[in-house]
Amino acid sequence: MQEELLNSVIKITKNRDIDSLEYSLISTIQEFIGCDEISVFKDLQVPGELTVELSLSLKLIGKSEFEWGERTLIKNPPPELLSCLQSACIITVQSNDGVERRWVPINLHDKPVGAIAIVSKGLKSSDQVLLNAFCRIFENYLTILNENERDKLTGLLNRQTFESKLKQLIEKQVLKQHRGVWNEDNRKKHQAACSWLAIMDIDHFKRVNDTYGHVCGDEVLLLLAQKMKQYFRATDLLFRFGGEEFVLVFEPTSYEAIKAKMEGFMELIRTTHFPFVKALTVSVGMSPISPYDFPITVLENADKALYYAKDHGRDQLRFYDELVAEDLIQSNQEQSDIDLF
Fold first, then answer.
1. What residues does the GGDEF domain cover (predicted)?
2. Which domain holds residue 235?
3. Which of 92, 217, 255, 292 is least enclosed by beta carbons within 10 angstroms?
4. Of 114, 132, 149, which residue sits at a domain end?
5. 131 plus 163 within the same structural domain
6. What pLDDT is stored for residue 331 in this prediction?
């Protein structure tokens, strides 16, 4: 038993990203404790409101069959979960049929950021000790991984995590396509929407640093990052790529909706008062993400659109596909063919 427990700790702590860490935690709890359902909930830390996400779940659907649940936002979190997040205490509720629901808080820097939810026929005291121990190991390692995944200045995701996060999003798209379980209305909506990648660059940011100093420049970056967190969906991936460059990855959305959303953010930045800087604008290049794209290809496409925007007046949004269709830039595929020959 001791050797098995040691191996389980090794299994949990060998992960190098938070998503894999969650899978390891759930599978380890199921292996040693055995539950009808295990879920990981996250407070997405949206400024000014409590936004809860079901990050991952595992449900027993037969004697030995399990079903993994997909990431989704929780519109109406159960009161026990809210109480757990607000009090940072374990909450336990038992129904008349003996089914126990237990919420265990997960803390980051002494602040609750999520919870592990367990549904079982009642946990023995030894199982409770194991559950708490696994959650504390998860909590400690989560602190390390979170620091490694985040930009130190803005708190956004950093460049090192970009490829793995985008790969996960693309893999989910492929999985949904292969499942083929949508009704006709959902299928039409999916065909009209796709994921998007945007590269955003602060216009003339070097001038800000040169004129007012790097401390002012950092304040500008911090405020911009705060505006991004407040404006975009909690499920959108926001990265700082370094300097004044940011990358945003959006879940499936129609062209019209993503264009309106991005233009709305650009207008917000135009009307925001930044420290020492009277006016600030951003340039944006965007590219759709197909289920079979390589992350580097999507990034290059958006980068081409960004540089077109910067070379033609700045403070504008440009789409890679539109620029190629209008023969304003050369597609990366054509460029590769030319380079090859």
1. 193-322
2. 157-340
3. 292
4. 149
5. no
6. 81
